[in-house]
Amino acid sequence: MSKFQPLIAYVAVDQEYELLPFKFEPLGNEEVVLSNMVGEFAILGRNKLESLINHTLAASDPDYGMLRAKHLLREKGERVPLELLALKARTKLANKANFTNLHLFVVSLRCDHSCQYCQVSRQSEDKAKFDMTEETAEKALDIVFRSPNPAIKIEFQGGEPLLNWALIKYVVEKAEVRNKIEQRNLQFVITTTLSLATDEMLEYCRDHGIVLSSSLDGPEDLHNKNRPRPGRDSYARFVDGLKRARNIIGYDAVSALMTTSPASMVRVRDIIDEYVKLGFSSIFLRHLSPYGFALKTKSYQAYNVDRWLEFFKEGLAYILELNKAGTSFVEQYSAILLTKMLTVRDPGFVDISSPCGAGISAVVFNYDGDVYASDESRMLHEMGDSTFRIGNVYENTYEEIFTNESLLSALEDSFTLSSPGCADCAIEPWCGSDPVFHHGMTGDMLGRKPESEFCKRQMGIAKYLLTLMKTDPEAKKIFMDWVGPC
Amino acid sequence: MRLDLDQSVYSLEAVQKAAYRFIDRLTILISQSEGIITCDIDLIVGCDALLDPVLADFKRELLDQQLRVQIKKETTDVRNLILSYAFSRSGLQG
Questions:
Q1: Under 8 Å between Cβ of A408 and B8
Q2: Is A450 close to B22, i.e. CB distance below 8 A?
Q3: Would the CB atoms of B86 and A424 count as touching at under 8 Å?
């Protein structure tokens, strides 16, 4: 007698099934994408969607098993799908309980560059009154270490933060002393153009485990056009600083971010080639935010979301070409979305979280002691709108800052499961909301999603990624490599 | 343009949600009486699209929204059960 049941025992038998919670969205005219409450997804023809919902999908249908495996349906009496969905839901949200991780210190508003699109209203270099003082930094550190998060990241921003180098050292050393007792996973980042980085500074970074987040907008002509400074040598200084920083701190200790200016629109391949040439393994194809000088100088209006999506798609297609030809290179924004789509991990990216990451993932201490819910909130303040100024280190306690009414309203309005338009959207499990953007553009933190550029951009990218995964198996394999294990 | 919808086929919730999705293109006034939901539809001022194709899209959206209502109706209890189970041992509940 065989130890196994006969084959007939394993043949799918039509039986009653129940739908598990899912949402759907059209993907072209004939297909829809379905996503469940933890972001697992399937693409189906419209007819099959109707069969599924009307409970007429046969167990022998080739998609039946896939829908069951992805927890979009369960057979009557099955409990395991519910337990697995609960476990995944809890995993996805686990980081929320840790509260604030990223603490940005705006140590100086001064800058040696005068970029047209700069999102922070900068001041000339000689105005020391726009520097953070030691006293302000001490008070900010008191708040930083009130965060319950076992991992604390302090990021120095500007202006050009290296112009207040003495304060950076002060904060690093004070935080290290506090951390001997606190025992957190403490990390430091300096956001810098590298134009003023000396070897002495870089050696200090090496000795204190500080990594650098720098800026590269593309080839020399484009970078210098975007980032004017005395001597018109921003690119040369960047390349020199990059080389020295890699030698002194370590090759992977320097990352780069780009800003998409109007002049970048027709240069996406050149920009990517520049990143590859300089030895970077990834790029973040960012859009311009409607804040600060970007708005004042009309840079923001120079391209709309449709034009930006074209730029993004052309860039991503080129990056896939490079990967297929053997050069491993990642587009980071796609990687963030794909991680949400293909794994149970949440990358915790502030701009696409639900509720949004303002305050609860990241918080900003301005040079003058003001506390903002996000970097964009600070930029909005520089434009005269202080809605998201949630306190001041001299005037408010930790409790007062993090229960500030504006912050709580922003969090409530950014909870996508209860936002009109988002609650029923299949992209929602991979998306988020940006109350600061919507408030800045429309005066309403929630915003009307059909009119929202944020929504159009997110929807455009997500649908493009889904289409690529469906039509190009090689692209899907590359995407799987980008997100790593489940 | 007026669109009369049979309330035994389309729920008010589905009609409202479909109308919201077209808020960037259409102004839709919704009213109901005697089993009929009526949509009074105009293109918004400044919209350069033609009404007919937008209206065709709106009708497709009505069907989608009605299906969404159907899914929600069937899965609300199990969704609540899954979320309750997910946080039952998290220490977050009051």
A1: no
A2: yes
A3: no
Counting every residue written for chain B, the total comes to 94
Render the burial of A5-38: b for 16+ CB within 10 Å, e for the rest. eeeeeeeeeeeebebbbbbbbbbeeebbbbbbbb
Q: Do A424 and B17 touch (CB under 8 A)?
A: yes
Predicted confidence (pLDDT) per residue in A2-25, tens digit: 788 888 887 767 678 999 999 999
Q: What is the ipTM of this complex?
A: 0.86
Cα–Cα distance for residue pair A74/A32, rounded to 1 Å: 20
Query: Does the beta carbon of A316 lie under 8 angstroms from any beta carbon of chain B?
Result: no
Length of chain A: 486
Which has more confidence, B13 or A419? B13
If contacts are CB pairs under 8 Å, which of residues 34-53 in chain B contact chain A? none
Q: Is A303 helix (H, G, I), strand (E, B) or coil?
A: coil
Counting as low any pLDDT under 50, the low residues of chain A are: none
Residues of chain B found within 8 Å of residue A47, distances taken between Cβ atoms: none
Tokens of residue A337, six digits: 């979305």
pLDDT more than 90, % of chain A: 67
Name which residue leads in pLDDT, A358 or B69.
B69
CA distance A111 to A108: 8
**Is there a contact between A135 and A388 (Cβ–Cβ < 8 Å)?**
no
Cα torsion through B67, B68, B72, B78, rounded to 10:
90
Residue B59, chain A, CB below 8 Å: the answer is: no
The DSSP code sequence of B22-38 is TTTTEEEEEEEETTEEE
Question: Considering CB atoms only, which of A24, A83, A450 is closest to B21?
Answer: A450
* B22 contacts in chain A (CB < 8 Å): 450
**What was the pLDDT predicted at A292?**
55
Show residues of chain A in contact with B79, CB under 8 Å.
21, 37
State the Cα–Cα distance between residues A299 and A303, nearest whole angstrom. Answer: 8
Q: At what angle do helices A134-144 and A165-182 cross, to 10 degrees?
A: 30
- What is the C-alpha to C-alpha distance for residues A330 and B93, in angstroms, rounded to an integer? 40
- Across the interface, of A49, A90, A97, the residue whose CB is closest to B86 is A90
**Residue B90, C-beta contacts closer than 8 angstroms, at least 6 positions apart:** A90, A97
Q: SS in 3 state form for A54-114?
A: CCCCCCCCHHHHHHHHCCCEEECCCCHHHHHHHHHHHHHHHHHHHCCCEEEEECECECCCC
Q: What's this model's pTM, rounded to 2 decimal places?
A: 0.90
